[in-house]
């Protein structure tokens, strides 16, 4: 199942917002070549992560009610002097895969899933309600943790892999599995399942599926590192070939661990739900990833989104990023930009400017990122001081200032001061 659109009312920093998303099989106008990718850009605190949380809550509300999910400050808190906000509504229009929904939905091309949240007075805890998401048979389908129906996985920006002792049974007791798959979007430092928690069992149970999972992970790795499913019994870890050197997972850099961590966790969940006759890459569902560029070198940022899009063509991704290198790998139809309205609420729109293939500096100075200059603030202050000295009659300062204005930013000479980019 995919999210065709998400409507947000009074949630987190949003007053009212609507997104029409890309998803596999989408038809009509505005379809991107990367039909399974949605990328949200914007300032810190501008609502990017809130979009991911809204999608997860609206779809999984029946499963979240008794799963350990705590709705902490999800209803929008207004500024002083503004009217109080008591309720928040989230509505997802969902498009099921053919044959995915039971006979009760025969003939319907889409269904609406609506969640309602309410404040509890002055406190920070809110209350989640099942608004009009059909109680049956959707609730029954969501009670099956290992069904491919309503498959949603989410990864927050504080994601990490537990490389020490990890107890899967303890994690399950703390959270229902449906919520456990998205808990990192709502809780800091939620540990992802390490490979050794699920991949050895898969090898014992189904060698063909084990090889498929290994190939799925290896297929998204960048040049210079490879994974063949080798397990070091002494280290109790899986080993990667890093530049020709066998390297345990825990010895990899933070960038590799952050990326392999969530990819491995995702493939593990896919392996849990995939029917016996199907392949892991054939499972449809939604994957929500905050800060897709987390810890990634710029070279990897140039390739990460196209790689995961190709490796998981049946999954719908909703990603956030601050990276112009990531943004330049997708089309404008894939991109949503958050901003702030005059009343302080967040807005989200799609721009008509081209984004694919543009240079990082060009994108940073465009409406997608909104910078007036890419120069350091200290450099700008220095340039302003030179200007004032030149204006007061200092000839040397005038020459130095002119030199700054005419020196290309990438040259070895002292770079110029930033100028507002003409639109």
Task: Write up what this structure looks like.
With 423 residues, the chain is of the alpha/beta class. The chain contains 13 helices and 16 strands. It is globular and about 80 Å long. Mean pLDDT is 86; it is low at 410-423. It has a six-stranded mixed β-sheet with strand order 7-13-14-3-15-16, sandwiched between helices. A five-stranded antiparallel β-sheet has the order 2-1-4-5-6, with helices on one face. Strands 10-11-12 form a three-stranded antiparallel β-sheet. This is AAA family ATPase. Residues 37-326 form the ATPase AAA-type core domain. It comes from Rhodoplanes tepidamans.
Topology record:
Blueprint: E1 2-9, E2 16-20, E3 37-41, H1 48-64, E4 87-95, E5 111-119, E6 126-130, H2 138-143, E7 152-155, E8 160-161, H3 168-174, H4 177-180, E9 191-192, H5 199-205, H6 207-218, E10 225-232, E11 237-242, E12 245-248, H7 254-273, E13 285-289, H8 298-301, H9 304-311, E14 315-320, H10 324-327, E15 335-340, E16 346-349, H11 360-364, H12 377-391, H13 395-406
Parallel strand pairs: 3-14, 3-15, 7-13, 8-9, 13-14
Antiparallel strand pairs: 1-2, 1-4, 4-5, 5-6, 10-11, 11-12, 15-16
Helix pairs in contact: 5-6, 6-7, 12-13
């Amino acid at each position: 199942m995919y999210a065709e659109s998400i409507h947000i009312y009074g949630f987190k920093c949003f007053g009212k917002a609507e997104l029409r998303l890309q998803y596999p099989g989408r038809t009509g106008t505005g379809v991107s070549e990367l039909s399974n990718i949605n990328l949200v850009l914007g300032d810190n605190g501008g609502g990017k992560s809130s979009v991911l949380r809204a999608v997860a809550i609206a779809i999984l509300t029946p499963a979240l009610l008794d799963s350990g999910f705590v709705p902490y400050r999800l209803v929008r808190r207004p500024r002083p002097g503004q009217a109080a906000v008591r309720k928040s509504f989230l509505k997802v229009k969902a498009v099921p895969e053919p044959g995915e929904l039971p006979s009760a939905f025969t003939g319907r091309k889409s269904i609406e899933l609506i969640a309602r949240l309410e404040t509890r007075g002055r406190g920070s805890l809110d209350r989640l309600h099942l608004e009009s998401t059909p109680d049956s048979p959707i609730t029954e389908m969501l009670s099956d943790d290992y069904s491919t129906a309503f498959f949603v996985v989410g990864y927050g920006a504080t994601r990490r892999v537990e490389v020490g002792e990890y107890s899967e049974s303890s994690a399950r007791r703390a959270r229902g599995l449906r919520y456990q798959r998205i808990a990192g979007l709502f809780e800091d430092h939620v540990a992802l399942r390490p490979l050794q928690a699920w991949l050895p069992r898969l090898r014992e149970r189904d060698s063909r599926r084990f090889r498929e999972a290994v190939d799925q992970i290896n297929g998204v790795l960048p040049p210079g590192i490879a994974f063949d499913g080798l397990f070091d019994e002494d280290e109790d870890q899986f080993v990667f070939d890093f530049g020709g050197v066998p390297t345990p997972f825990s010895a990899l850099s933070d960038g590799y661990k952050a990326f392999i961590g969530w990819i491995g966790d995702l493939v593990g969940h896919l392996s849990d739900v995939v029917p016996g006759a199907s392949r892991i890459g054939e499972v449809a569902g939604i994957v929500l990833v905050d800060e897709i560029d987390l810890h990634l070198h710029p070279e990897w940022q140039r390739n990460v989104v196209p790689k995961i899009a190709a490796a998981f063509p049946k999954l719908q991704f909703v990603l956030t990023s601050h990276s112009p290198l990531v943004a330049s790998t997708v089309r404008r139809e894939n991109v949503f930009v958050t901003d702030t309205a005059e009343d302080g609420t967040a807005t989200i729109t799609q721009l008509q400017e081209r984004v694919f293939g543009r240079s990082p500096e060009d994108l940073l100075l465009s409406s997608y990122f909104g910078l007036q200059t890419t120069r350091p603030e200290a450099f700008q202050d220095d340039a302003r001081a030179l200007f004032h000295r030149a204006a007061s009659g200092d000839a040397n300062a005038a020459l130095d200032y002119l030199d700054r204005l005419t020196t290309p930013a990438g040259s070895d000479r002292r770079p110029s001061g930033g100028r507002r980019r003409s639109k």
